């Protein structure tokens, strides 16, 4: 079992609510990141429902509240990594970074919270610990770690897809005399690396973003790499103000294009085949996109690199050639070459000076694929080949129990006391990634089975929030007591999610998309790879035909708990 990172803050409130008092609201929303904030606005302000949001952090922001590690930034360009529901908001906010850094995104979300008076609807420093559906009252009974007891007709989970950090179960961590941190629970005051010997374990997004910065700030950095990565230069810079002006003049169309696109970005995907052009032509295109930087390399090179192994090999080999070109020491370059999975089968990465960092004198790379870390010692760590390393700080960039981990941290039970953890023991099962059988009136924002992590998140979040709030409005107008997913609809959707994934490269890597990073987690592809636009169309069709796949039960007199 992996160790789960405990998320806490020194300023966390110790005040407990009066545990005997139960209040009632129409809806409880869990989480105050992009999803919970917009859900609050829709339910409270647009539908006029009584709504309570609980948020474990002391501020809004979700992922962007917690991920304060050096170099943390978004891989979507800033002009498209934002809400689109309010034209004035779109026009008034000015991004400074092309790829927004964590502080700037958090500032944006705080601005949104102020602008729509969202803080008044959120109880901070509060984790929801349990939510039980009561079959007699048709209400959810929600409990928090601050002693709150609340009943609600609806529960909406806005808990994030990548929000439960994992630290591998390596013996000895408690004996380590230096400091250690997980990238997703980074101290607010920052970490001073000056003069320190630092280890970074993990080379996913968080590792690739933080390694170049920590290398600059520390005396010495050792990177422990299990799987080498394909990563494309981001070519980060300040936002071009002329470009921003043009974006603002065309925001409606840009946002509309994103909503119907494949991945939530306003770009055309290439439909050309990598196998139908000459080697010179292909190389020239790869070079051009490598220079332009960002996800263009994935989206705008050749359509078949995501689905055809031979086409993919051409891109994978190009990136390996770039690594050999950039990294001066041939042994280090060799260790950095990704060979065991195709490009794009794990989360695609973009970086700022990642491979260059290995040319620094104060940086070493240790390949732990064959000799894993065996023990954390009081002074550092030891690998399975007997090598001992000494550190002042260890950074765990070791990822998350993605998509389901945060659900399982809540004692969530549905009809007849069925636990979500049991229901999903062989992998998450949902209808549209929004609802799951036996859990009536519970809606998930970007749950497993929706495009979520395969897309530009704010676009997917907005689509879910709007779909769910439209559905709640529809149910309220008809005085429906409970809405349940039919087992057939769920089965059919789960099958569809699997069928689509089978046609992609995603099945060819040990990734967190498949739960492969968590020992014992069922190997099931969790997000929906069919594309944002196709998915939206399906959701809209369901909404416009009285929600097939859902059973709407007759209203009965609401019975409030004592
Ligand atoms: P990721 O992408 O899950 O990366 C975690 C990294 O940690 C990855 O390189 C893992 O190697 C490595 N890892 C995990 N467990 C171990 C153990 N036991 N020993 C050694 N190395 C290990 O998490 P990130 O935080 O970087 O990114 C999460 C998402 O946030 C990202 O995809 C974006 O969507 C934003 P592995 O590849 O599993 O061999």
Describe the protein.
The chain has 562 residues and is of the alpha/beta class. It has helices at residues 34-46, 63-66, 87-92, 102-115, 205-217, 241-249, 251-259, 279-292, 296-299, 309-326, 330-336, 354-357, 405-408, 420-423, 457-477, 487-502, 532-544, and strands at residues 3-4, 22-30, 51-54, 122-123, 128-134, 139-144, 149-157, 166-167, 179-182, 197-201, 220-225, 231-233, 349-351, 363-367, 373-377, 380-383, 388-390, 393-396, 411-413, 442-444, 483-485, 550-552. Strands 2, 3, 4, 5, 6, 7, 19 and 20 form an eight-stranded mixed β-sheet that branches. Strand 16 and strand 17 (388-390) form a beta hairpin. Helix 1 runs parallel beside helix 15 (457-477) and helix 15 packs parallel to helix 17. The longest helix has 21 residues, at 457-477. Residues 9-17 and 558-562 have low confidence and may be disordered. Bound molecules: ligand NA7. Ligand NA7 binds next to helix 5.
How do the helices and strands line up, and which of them pair or pack?
Layout: E1 3-4, E2 22-30, H1 34-46, E3 51-54, H2 63-66, H3 87-92, H4 102-115, E4 122-123, E5 128-134, E6 139-144, E7 149-157, E8 166-167, E9 179-182, E10 197-201, H5 205-217, E11 220-225, E12 231-233, H6 241-249, H7 251-259, H8 279-292, H9 296-299, H10 309-326, H11 330-336, E13 349-351, H12 354-357, E14 363-367, E15 373-377, E16 380-383, E17 388-390, E18 393-396, H13 405-408, E19 411-413, H14 420-423, E20 442-444, H15 457-477, E21 483-485, H16 487-502, H17 532-544, E22 550-552
Parallel strand pairs: 2-3, 2-7, 3-4, 5-19, 7-20, 9-18, 10-11, 10-18, 11-14, 12-13
Antiparallel strand pairs: 1-8, 5-6, 6-7, 15-16, 16-17, 21-22
Helix pairs in contact: 1-15, 15-17
Bound molecules: ligand NA7.
Ligand NA7 is lined by residues 162, 168, 183, 201-207, 226-227, 347, 368, 372, 397-400, 453, 512, 517.
